[in-house]
Here is the input.
Amino acid sequence: VVCLTTDLPSSSRTAFVGSDQFASGATAGWFCGRMLQNEKAGRVLFVYSVPFRCALDREQGFRQVLRTEFPALMIDERVCSMESSDVIYEAVRRYISKVGPPSAIYNVSGANIGIGRALEDEGLGSKTIFIGHELNDNSRALLERGTMDLTIGHDFDREFSMSVECIRMALQGKQPVKHLTPSQLFTRYNCAIT
Here is the structure.
């Protein structure tokens, strides 16, 4: 068994191939803080979904960096997307109606399109910092429109090839090693999908 993208180190897996999700969350926290460095205080809306290990690791990394390096920024509330664009669209609109626009939104899971649509419908598409994960058609469109500021991804094709190599090594009686791959950062200027 090779864990891909999300590691389960306490399982009896043979190897892990993927990026360090704690570091990905910490990277999101660092960029969020730097993008909001001129704000004396700011609220960050945190979006989560089901408790996947990778999402939990991202949240821990994000919180640690905000707490240690950007104490003026605080996570104001957590809202659950349920991996549904419609659910998170309504949740973000309710949040904005109740407490006003957040300085930033960080999404550790899916349904970025719902967050983007809510920001655009509230007239906040270019005003609220929006950071998420995984470059796909939806996040690319949000980046290109300027609604999303940063997407943290990874080279899935490379990771898949490395996983196949791990399986091949195990079948040959060799012990495969853990392969940590670097996170990739995408903005509107480098998000083209080929």
About this structure: The chain has a mean pLDDT of 94. The chain is about 40% helix and 20% strand. The CA atoms of residues 20 and 169 lie 23 Å apart. Helices lie at 21-35, 53-69, 85-99, 112-121, 137-145, 156-171.
